[in-house]
């Protein structure tokens, strides 16, 4: 279900825009029910009121939690089942965040990512994206939503933009706390600035070398790292939020001095934060995680030279839950 199609359906029943907003707001804030009973909505036109139980049921059926995998850092990975039997992963993050999936599978095919290995299966609809947030809100408060789960949000722009608008307008989430994460598709730099809700932007950089980036991200658009940073800088200046550059640290691949020197040259003076994330090893993929001491030394070296660098661990690592692993294990028939 797309949010726009639900609005069209409500309108056909006689709902005014403020009625649509109220129904959607109650859903996304988990506020329509009191101890399991729907709050009275006497102000709605009768046909809309009569359709509400059916609509509630459909919204509830969009996504359900199949398994939960809590980790010591306070995060928890969720394997989420969709109505057609497909599955995606969401992650409850420490400090009131949730990471959601925007596609079942992914067409970008990043060499180090489990999700990328199986290609794209289907788009996740705007309703299913918001339903992941609603599920998370049933577990704990959510004040931040990052689009960093399975999928490339830029390849599902209409659905992702609809979800972002609803979360930012009715969902009580600050616009800078909606984080659109992409490998860098030119369409993103056209659509996001024009949106009613402008999310923060995370750009997957991973290397300063164009040829290596093409190898690591084989089906990402052919923007060089420099072009990507130029586009990012324009968006950062427009919105007033820094770009979050993502750098998955791969042992012996992008952790050498040449990369660090080039990073200084690329990012110095930019309105940016560099998130360094030591790789979360995936069985069957030929990459290694560098030691924590080495990763720490790299981040400190960059920081001392003026690059605002944050060393992060990917949430849920101690439950063997790199993006796509839960789903891959469930498809193998193993206990996810
Ligand atoms: Fe797709 Fe992201 Fe995995 Fe790359 S890292 S294949 S963009 S899900």
Automatic annotation (TrEMBL):
A GO biological-process term: methylation
KW Iron (keyword) present: yes
Coiled-coil segments: none
Entry's Gene Ontology molecular function annotations: methyltransferase activity
Keyword entries, A-Z: 4Fe-4S, Cytoplasm, Disulfide bond, Iron, Iron-sulfur, Metal-binding, Methyltransferase, S-adenosyl-L-methionine, Transferase
Gene3D superfamilies: Aldolase class I
InterPro entries xrefs: Aldolase_TIM, Methyltransferase_A, rRNA_lsu_MTrfase_RlmN/Cfr, rSAM, rSAM_sf
Cofactor section: [4Fe-4S] cluster
Segments forming domain Radical SAM core: 92-318
Localization per record: Cytoplasm
Family to which the UniProt record says this protein belongs: Belongs to the radical SAM superfamily. RlmN family.
NCBIfam families: PRK14464.1
The name this protein goes by in its record: RNA methyltransferase
Provenance organism: Massilia norwichensis
